[in-house]
Amino acid sequence: MHKYNLISRLRSIPCALRLSPFVLCLFLISCTSNIKDTESVHAFIEQMATKHQFDESELDDLFETVEIKQDILKRISSPSEGLPWYKYRKIFLTDARIDAGVQFWRDNEPALTAAEAKYGVPAEIIVAIIGVETLFGKNTGNHRVIDALSTLAFAYPPRSKFFTGELENFLLLCRDEHISPADPLGSYAGAMGIPQFMPSSFRTYAVDFDNDKRSDIWHNSGDAIASVANYFAKHHWQTGQPVAVPVTAKDKASAPANAPRPRPVGENFEPVLKNSLKPDLRVAELESLNLIISRQLPLDSKVKLLSFEQQQGKELWAALDNFYVITRYNHSPLYAMAVYQLSLSILSKKGAFP
């Protein structure tokens, strides 16, 4: 089989400072350094040559240019999803982002309409994902993807296995798409393009929507829009079904004087908040916890009860299957709620300004 011809011009790029192999085993690294001469990188290069027929010498040249990035290690250790909801929400639910979403929708209406028709995913959800991820393509990241993935694969033990897999997929997609691995820029975690796909997601879900023989999620809004829609469709988006509905505690004051006093709400629902994000409660089961759903749902619907921290207490929501689908893009319920609420705000404002 043919060998992968990387980019011979990388040979002319000077090497960075070298780092001793044992230092790479540390959880944090105190300086920026080259990683080529470490056992883990050698093993990875050998694997890529054996498994995928990459040229070892050309991978050696590529990794001569790769650097461990201390700022990436700091960012991965303190993601914004660690914020309380009332602070996290303020990052994304802004007038500027909503207005930009309306404009993005207008600028890309044909592609959004076609993607919604083909994949069954509402245009406002697609727009909101792109709005949360990159402010509609404005902030796609300034880290070299090869540096970001290598830093997290070889210098961040808690997620080494995951990011080593993403690095493998990145080199494969560069070969498939005829892209120099030294060129793509992305987030500190290696997410790429307008929709911020990880390499494995790109290889599985990216779409060539305009049939130009390339899935260009970096510069082609149509490809990015269709790729997001395809991602949700493949994760079983339920067309026409709700995403999430607010939940409130029953008003104790409205109960008859001789009625049994319900247990404090916290005693009822706290245990069910600790499970996974997948819907696991029937509507009747939710109501048995002294909770009221704000809109009628089919009795056989399954929901997941979620609590979001506000400054004045907890805000409760019943999340349905489509909310769970959004969390497949980013596993944080804060992220999914931000996407959902941004989508509603953009849809509302777009309707107000035809």
What features would you describe in this structure?
- The chain has a domain at 244-252 and 261-319: Lysozyme (Orthogonal Bundle), CATH 1.10.530.10.
- Helix content is 45%, strand content 10%.
- It has helices at residues 39-52, 56-64, 70-76, 85-92, 95-107, 109-119, 123-134, 145-154, 160-177, 199-205, 221-234, 265-269, 283-287, 321-326, 333-352; strands at 33-34, 67-68, 143-144, 185-186, 244-249, 281-282, 291-293, 302-310, 313-319.
- The protein has a five-stranded antiparallel β-sheet with strand order 6-8-9-5-7.
- Helix 6 (109-119) packs parallel to helix 11, helix 9 crosses helix 10 (199-205) and helix 10 (199-205) packs across helix 11.
- It is globular.
- The N and C termini lie far apart (56 Å).
